[in-house]
Amino acid sequence: MTAPLTSLDRPNSYIGRSLPRPNAKRLLAGRGRYVSDLRLPRMLHAAFLRSPHAHAKIVSIKTDEARALEGVHLVATGADLATICTPWTGTLDHFKGMTSAPQLPLPLDRVVWAGQAVVAVVAENRATAEDALELIEVDYEDLPIVVDIDGAREADSPLVNPGSVSNVCFRSQLDSGAVDDAFAHAAHVVEEEFSFGRHTAVTLEPRAIVADYDPAAGMLTVHHGTQTPYQFQDLYSRHYGIPEARVRVIATDIGGSFGMKLHVYHEDMAVVGLSILLGRPVKYVADRIESFVSDIHARDHRVRARMALDAKGEILAMDVLDLTAIGAFSTYPRTSVVEGNQVVRLIGAPYRFRNYRATLEVIFQNKVQTSQYRAVGHPIACAVTERMVDMAAAKLGLDPFAIRAQNVIADDAYPQTSPTGYRFEALSHEACLKRLQEMMGYDGLRAEQAELRKRGIYRGIGIATFVEITNPSPAFYGVGGARISSQDGAIVSLTPSGEVRCLISVTEQGQGTEAIISQIVADQLGLAQEHVKVITGDTEVTPHGGATWACRGAGIGGETALQAARALKRNILEIAALILQEQPSALDIIDGDVVDAGTRNRRLPISEIARIVYFRSDTLPPGTQAQLTVSHHFAPQGYPFAFTNGIQGCSLEVDVDTGFIKLLKHFIVEDCGRVINPMLVDEQLRGGIVQGLGAALFEECRYSETGQLVNGSLADYLVPMPMEMPDIAIAHVDTPTADTELGAKGVGEAGTAAASACVLNAVNDALVPFGAAVNSIPITPARVLKALKRF
Amino acid sequence: MDFGETAVKASAFSYFRAATIDQALDAHARAGDDARFIAGGQSLVPALSLRLQAPRLLIDITHIAELRGVRREGACLRIGALTRHCEMLSEPLIAEFAPLLHAAAPFVAHPAIRNRGTFGGSVALADPASEFPAMTLALDAEIEIAGASGRRRVKADEFFFDLFETALQPGELITAIYVPLFKADQRFAFDELARRRGDYALVGCGMLATFTSDRIDDIRISFFSVGNRPMRAKAAEAALIGFGLDAEHIAAAQAALEDDLAPPENDEVPPAMRLHLARVLLGRLLGRLGEGA
């Protein structure tokens, strides 16, 4: 699956080279500019009183004592902020029939989850603000709560939103046709019910915001740890009635995001309003406990699935019901429905079968909102599909590799459209399967497994094929009415010294966006990478664009940079041709010099061109107007999404007496098209896999029957740590997309997409001698021991 | 100093650095006991930040020389209350004469916490999931306490009452812990089942046994993370004393745990699971002990 060679494949190309991130040294030296560290003159600090109840009426709020405390500047309730902020609703038009209640920064008369912010205090410092919180009295009247998925769906269930007919936020069905018929005639049917717990992002730096409203200029500046400054510029402008041009959102360094920091949070909206009310900068940084109860959570699915096969192991059909609970509101502006929508659309995606039916039901409950988090929907779709495939293989006596090889869409059969309507340009399942089997030393692992079983050591081997959605077009959000861009913009300038500045709308969250953009620009312009400065994350400076989410930074942002750099190169060569009295086509740029395209003989440094243009334009032919700054926008066209694919494998050991699982080794073969920086791609994969392994074994937001999060601290909520993580071996297959010159697709979510599925399959493989199986994620010692009936 | 814009979230408190035990006790009394001693601060500081505790006064005891140091005193090792967890790993006297503490130390949280947390602080807090309080039971240690009425020594067996409740009275301070010297005819074993290295264990256990050849003359088995306080497994001990560590007696000890432990209700680790894990761990540790550990 190798595309024809292009200029990008030159041996000395920056594209395809492992280079360290230019910003890594700065961050490691403690020179990062995180919002958490920001101090502005006259800055005040906000703290929030939170609801101890999962569902209650607010009877009264007494704030007199808090207001009187020395150092307190403002105590604001929902009513105070509602006077200046318009409500928002987390629905999108293309999810027909979905509902969600309007939201305000702080509630007016009812709290709907434990931990919801109720009253804001702004004071000279955070400790004083916290002191004031202790002086506020809120009188609540308990309302019946909705906690679990089953309870929420019962006819007589209490309602999260009184006045609505049910707790259903959204319901949809996909049906390609002859599913019942396929099951009726199937030789084999496998069936399972899965549950996937809630987990959350746990970024190293929590959510952080400093809002700075200047009433004299009518200007709002928000320093915001977010992936999507343009989206927030738009939202702050519209909800606070400030012209867009007078709203500036600056997102400098961010201590991790993973999708969590692109949603509207009540506290963040409140902080903007508090700054407007006070005319002073107001800062809020969530502490860890606040993060656990107010950051979006993710997943929380109950999936029932069936798969039909013929006698030879050909998959005929799948039939799926996904119930997912999202908290009390659908998140704004991206909704909380995308996850479930992607679950039901991605199930079965690697395989050839045509008969597919899925029902999705998205349900409200009295918990914090769930929404998009790294690999939205993918881990659920992958785990359900791949576990079914393994169950089918076991039933038919087929090897897991063999049944997949038999059923994946053949590498030479593209383009293809999935039964759910996804259009695949070109994927490489067969090549990936083959490569993984070699890389794992699969036969050797199986032999070792058999040998160790005789000694009472139970190892498991699991594999999981996946398809990932990347490079989304307006089909993702734009068509639903969200003002979330799918295009990106770049402004590239040659400086007077002959260096290049690139201002671009994609953002950096530590994954190396700025590094790859500088590689692409340097490559296309024929400059050294250190002579390219990339600037991101400031709506006042960088052009409007989608920014970085859904694996679009490299594929869309990268193409934008490539096209912009090419345009600047054309302009530079036009001027060079005038100076050298040549045709532009006879010239090229290599290592910062204009050269003869044919002989590569050095003619003129581009710094000299810059000098002449900026300081001695009088020496250029009359009428010359040199354009050494170009702007370029790129919107993806062609396929609505650039799908990627890959396969993961793992080997682990189950201690059948304790239920503990030791991960021994993890493998991935991934196809993200053209790899711009192999080191960054590999580390993205490793990071993604580790997050997937966290979900598989450790991470779960556990709630009590009264809707209280019971493990909201890092002592109780277990994130994956190095001691428990295995080595991760990586290989690539490269199938560039033909939709862009660059050919890059996304890679940031591939690791997370299949890691938990892989572990689920491996644990079940280890448990085969006991006739036991697990079907819940995370796979905790309790669940393993339960499956083994050890207690 | 300008703390105006730092993220300190604790309630305001006064701070006093005591140079002697008497100064510390006196300061506590003068604060009307609305005070806390602070040493390593690894449990207290998070509690202050969470505002779970808001004392008027913090009394820093880390500069009291008398609370420091590890030395032999007769048949015991005197381990000063300020001995840090990391010193349990680095101090040769502990490795030689209290090897069970040396073995448990790597399991205590993470290096950054071990660098600051103190032995005395851990025992005084008596977190039922902590390694060291439980090990004082296995070691038959004595805890030396200073208070308004002078000094006293309390056997570990009589020190731990209930959840975070100990023989310490308000205003009292642990000064040292006395551990009988490890002897040539003794063996020890320690391990825990924690989901991640450094986490609070689901179950943990340490034991110290005295042998005549392969027969157990005496054994003290102590569990942590099994209830409201560290627990001696006396029924299991009784099932082993006088016998060799064969499969039959190990099984008897495992069975006896039902009488020793009554794990609390927990959504993640139900009581029956914890008892099961305790039995598995006990079996493994006794196996190691039998091999000479």
Description of the molecule:
The complex is a heterodimer of chains A (791) and B (293). Chain A has 20 helices and 29 strands. Chain A is α+β, with helices and mostly antiparallel strands and 791 residues long. Chain A is globular. Chain A has three domains: 173 residues, Aldehyde Oxidoreductase, domain 4, CATH 3.30.365; 202 residues, Aldehyde oxidase/xanthine dehydrogenase, a/b hammerhead (Aldehyde Oxidoreductase, domain 3), CATH 3.90.1170.50; 328 residues, Aldehyde Oxidoreductase, domain 4 (2-Layer Sandwich), CATH 3.30.365.10. In chain A, β14, α10 and β15 form a beta-alpha-beta unit. In chain A, the strands form seven sheets. In chain A, strands 3-5-1-12-9-10-11 form a seven-stranded mixed sheet, sandwiched between helices. In chain A, strands 7-15-14-13-8-29 form a six-stranded mixed sheet. Chain B is α+β, with helices and mostly antiparallel strands. Chain B folds into three domains: 47 residues, 2-Layer Sandwich (Uridine Diphospho-n-acetylenolpyruvylglucosamine Reductase, domain 2), CATH 3.30.43.10; 116 residues, Uridine Diphospho-n-acetylenolpyruvylglucosamine Reductase, domain 3; 105 residues, 2-Layer Sandwich (Enolase-like, domain 1). Helix content of chain B is 33%, strand content 26%. In chain B, strands 4-5-10-6-7 form a five-stranded antiparallel sheet. Chain B has a four-stranded antiparallel sheet with strand order 11-12-13-14. In chain B, β12 and β13 form a beta hairpin. Chain B is globular and about 60 Å long.
